[in-house]
Amino acid sequence: MTFTTAALPQDLSFYGEGSADLWISATAKDTDLQVTLSEVRPDGQEMFVQRGWLRASKRALDPARSTELRPFGHYPQAALNPLKARQANLTRIEINKFAHVFRAGSSLRLTIDTPSQTGYWKFGHLPDASTNSIWHDRQHPSSLVLGYLPYTHASGLPDCATTLRQPCRANAVPVPAGVGPDLPR
Question: The Xaa-Pro dipeptidyl-peptidase C-terminal domain covers which part of the protein (predicted)?
């Protein structure tokens, strides 16, 4: 599932951790989730920015260490929390630290998927297949929370071949028309 903003009217800079606060339901007691943040550029390229992963049964948080920007996991065996089947469950997925300027004319994209293998790292296999749903209504306000860095202006788009560990690919998903997102003031 992909959420894409309309084109940004100005440069927008984010720094630090982030959180994808998603209300999910699943047909299984557990599921693995990956969120990927990217910039859809006006030149037709999509640039990777950062991602985060979570096994949903490990969604318990340490309230003393968690913040609005960083859901700090609490992972002892006693904290495992199976999903309530076919019911909305709040699941906060930490987006690893990053610093990125989204240029005016670009769009911000959040993709929610099951994790791919990254290098040598991957989740262990879950025994049950699952169909997952993302909820977003008044009672279940799924959201993306990022650390805003004000007063940033960047020069033009960086060349895709020069940005370390942030590969580009041709954008295959249309960008919505209209006014961009509400921006911090």
Answer: 1-144
- Global pTM? 0.86
Q: Could you tell me if residue 168 is inside a domain?
A: no
**Considering the domain boundaries, does residue 34 fall inside one?**
yes
Per-residue pLDDT tens for 112-135? 998 866 666 667 778 788 899 999
Residue 177 resides in a domain: no
Using CB atoms within 10 Å of the CB of residue 126, give its burial: 0 to 12 exposed, 13 to 18 middle, 19+ buried: middle
Q: Name the token pair of 10.
A: 């100005």
Which run of H or of E encompasses 23? strand 12-26
Report the CATH number at residue 89. Answer: 2.60.120.260
Give 67-87 pLDDT, tens digit per residue.
999 999 877 776 788 898 889
Tally the C-alpha atoms within 13 A of residue 19's C-alpha that lie toward its C-beta.
Answer: 19
Residue type, 54: L
Number of domains comprising the chain: 1
